[in-house]
Each structure stands twice: as C-alpha cells, then as structure tokens.
Amino acid sequence: VGFVNGRLLCENVLLASELVNDFHNPGLITRGCLQIDITKAYDNVHWSFLLNILEALKLPSAFISWIRLCISSPHYSVALNGELVGFFPGRKGLRQGDPISSSLFVLAMD
C-alpha cells in the first residue's frame, strides 16, 4: 500500500491495530492474524513473470519492450582481493532506488 498513489503505509498499521485490539476478549468469534515479511522483495521479482503481467494487461508491445530494457540491463561483478573479476548479467530482480521499481513491484504483488 505504501507505493500506491493516494494510499499511505500507515493505513496497514492502523487496520492491524483495529483488528487485534479485541483479540483476547471472550465471546468474540474466532479470529486469526497473518504477518508476511517479504525478505529481499525487489530481488525476488522474476522478469518473465513481470513481463507476462504486462502482456496480460494488454499494454502496448513498445511499452513492454521499454520496460524489458529497463529491468534486464544490469550486470554484476565480484570483487576478489579488491579487484573486479568478470561481469555477469542479472536474471531477476528490480533495482533499488529506480523510480519505476516500486510500481512494477506493486504489479507483481497484485
């Protein structure tokens, strides 16, 4: 919710507080609560999955191609004894700090 225009992250906190406020009161119906922590959320978005979502939304192919170029261009390197050794392409994940990453993540999670 934190990345959706017009919504605030604190809305989830307020909703959760309301839901668990009377959790232990006798006579209420049985309730449950689930908390999901998405570890390294951006790192785990598969590009093919995201591109399939964009196609399912029937977005123009040129737009999908632009997104493909944006998300699939990173290359990584390993530092060994202070020296960069080789470069290899990324296979999944969205870049932290990229303005479009939050919107793409919301699409993937939805």
Automatic annotation (TrEMBL):
Question: What are the TM regions of this chain, as residue ranges?
Answer: none
- GO molecular function of the protein, one example? RNA-directed DNA polymerase activity
Q: Has the keyword Signal been applied to this entry?
A: no
Q: Which UniProt keywords apply?
A: Nucleotidyltransferase, RNA-directed DNA polymerase, Transferase
Q: Which Pfam families match?
A: RVT_1
UniProt domain Reverse transcriptase: residue ranges:
30-110
What protein name applies here? LINE-1 reverse transcriptase-like protein
